[in-house]
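Name: Pseudoazurin
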Amino acid sequence: MLLRAALLCLLPVAAIAETHEVRMLNRNDTGPMPFEPDYLVIRPGDTVRFLATSPGHNAATIVGMIPEGGEKFTGKINQEIEVTLEAEGIWGIKCSPHYTMGMAMLIQVGDTPATEADLPEDLPDAVRQRMLEILERQKGE
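Structure predicted for Pseudoazurin:
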């Protein structure tokens, strides 16, 4: 029994999945209709909990911004949703009602950071602008 407990202590800490929280807001210091944080770095197998902090929001994947092997999801308006992301790559997330206003975020699953090349050509202008601002901020960190 002690040997089993000792062996369990030797398992790498990275094997334990984490849960990350993202708030859906009406406004913060980055402007109107943000996710907070708007760029998240996680490991494969981690869970993201989207909190409906302000009313009228949801979280859903953006078509064309789901890594190979990933599955789309769409949360309901005003409801918390938890998703476990296994597929490595860059995930684009939107609030469906406020998408054209630029309410979007990026999730990096794994070690490869997002670049402008990850952004589809057909993004609404406000979403492209928000994502470029997010990427610029990430360069400075």
